[in-house]
Amino acid sequence: MPRVVPDQRSKFENEEFFRKLSRECEAFVATGTNLSLQFFPTTLQGEQRQLPTRDYVDFDRETGKVYLKAPMILNGVCVIWKGWIDLQRLDGMGCLEYDDEKAQQEDLLAQQAFEEVRRRVRDFEDRDRLHCEDVEHLKTTQNPVHVYTYTE
Fold first, then answer.
1. 9/2 Cα distance (integer angstroms)
2. Residues 38-41: contacts with CB within 8 Å, 24+ apart?
């Protein structure tokens, strides 16, 4: 199952869900969307991958606010949530942007996975064909077994 849809940009630009969330708004929850932002999620072993840079979490840009950026795959489309949160009121604004660079990487990974599956299917079909040919060859080259019975 691929992580991304075949034409991510088209889905991002044409679906109402993405059009709504790509406009900067005060609260995603008003649209019925809740996001759990993970800047650098832990690995399967529970190890932290890396600490987010100022590009992802910036407390210095404006006093009293934190500016955030969180890349993700949402409904099969590579996007980045960008926004800010007021540290006193705990409200803010944000929007989704299409992540063209990540989309290209994911498209390449999906294409490689597809090619690998095609290669495996071809290998399986070749082995199956050879096996069937071997069985047919054995049937035609072996002498039939004759059973003789002795009676007195």
1. 16
2. 38/70, 38/72, 39/68, 39/69, 39/70
> What gap in Å lies between CA 67 and CA 86, rounded to an integer?
9
Q: Per-residue confidence of the chain (152 residues) as pLDDT tens digits?
A: 678 998 999 999 999 999 988 988 777 666 677 777 766 655 555 566 667 788 889 999 999 999 999 889 999 999 999 999 999 988 888 999 999 999 999 999 888 988 999 999 999 998 988 888 888 877 777 655 566 667 76
What is the rounded distance in angstroms from the CA atom of residue 100 to the CA atom of residue 87?
Answer: 30
C-alpha triplet 33, 2, 79: angle, nearest 5°: 40
For residue 84, give the nearest of 108, 110, 61, 52 by alpha carbon: 61
Provide the whole-model pTM. Answer: 0.68
Tokens of 120: 């495996």
